Structure formats: C-alpha cells, structure tokens
Amino acid sequence: MPKVRRSRKPPPEGWELIEPTLDELDQKMREAETETHEGKRKVESLWPIFRIHHQKSRYIFELFYKRKAISRELYEYCLKENIADKNLIAKWKKQGYENLCCLRCIQTRDTNFGANCVCRVPKPKLQEGKIVECVNCGCRGCSG
C-alpha cells in the first residue's frame, strides 16, 4: 500500500515512535471512507471519519501537551503536514472545550436556531434516559 505523500523535508527525530500508530489510523480512515453506506442516513456515513480524525488529532495533542513525549519540532511538523487538526487542538487548550468532538458542533451558523449543537448541552440538562446524538458527528455529549 502506498504511503501518504509528505513534504520533501524528512520528518524530525521521534517520528519513528508515532509512525506506526498514525499508519494504523490512516488505514482505519481508508476503511471508513470505502465502507458501504447502504441503510444509513446521509450524515451517518460520515461519523466514522469524524471519529478517526478526532482520534488522530487527540493522539498528537496528548503526546505533546499531556505526556510531553514528542518534541515541539515533531508537533509542528504534524500540524504543518495536516496529520493533526490545528484548529481543533487550539480549541482543546481553552477552558470548556477540553473534550470537544469537532469544530462543526460549536459553529452556530450550522444550526436552526443559531445555538451550539445538542452534544454541547450538559447531560443533566437533557431528559433522563433519552439518548441524543449529534447530527454532525454522532457524538453523544462532549460538554462534560
């Protein structure tokens, strides 16, 4: 299987440590993209792609900010090569957005009433026993 095309510049030191995990996530992404969408709603076919994108960005974020396992140079390389979503990571650093699932959930222009997505509503405010899924990404609650 061909590798994902990267820039001509060789990756920084430490790339060998994270490459197997990123390759595994790329493989999952390819499977999610080619998966059949028969019997699913139009938006449901995109949910696995959003989840894998979130997982890949979260992996890079936690390696750099939480565990401090990779260098700044490698972190910036991952952002520059679009391996991780820099806008989503920027939101994770802000208070109240630590568990944000995707950027579409906080964009008010995508909703009917100009508010945040339903997954941003705290669980105690929702009705008991009712399972609510985000239309955009399938999240069941990322507000905490």
The sequence of SSEs as H and E is: HHHH
Structural class: mainly alpha
Distance between the termini: 39 Å
Give the mean pLDDT: 89
Q: DSSP helix count?
A: 4
Give the total of domains: 2
| Apparent shape | globular
Helix content: 25-40%
Oligomer: single chain
Q: Count the strands?
A: 0
**Largest sheet properties:** none
Rg to the nearest angstrom? 17 Å
Beta-strand percent range: under 5%
Residue windows where pLDDT falls under 50 for at least 5 positions: none
Describe what this molecule looks like in 3D.
The protein is mainly alpha-helical and 144 residues long. It has two domains: 79 residues; 49 residues, no CATH class. The protein is globular, with a radius of gyration of 17 Å. It starts with 14 loop residues before the first helix and ends in a 52-residue tail after the last helix. The relative contact order is 0.13. The model has no long low-confidence stretch (mean pLDDT 89).
Main attributes?
Protein BUD31 homolog, BUD31, 39% helix, nucleus, 0% strand, BUD31/G10-rel_CS, 2 domains
Topology diagram in text:
Layout: H1 15-34, H2 47-66, H3 72-80, H4 86-92
Helix pairs in contact: 1-2
Keywords: Nucleus
InterPro entries: BUD31, BUD31/G10-rel_CS
Main location: nucleus
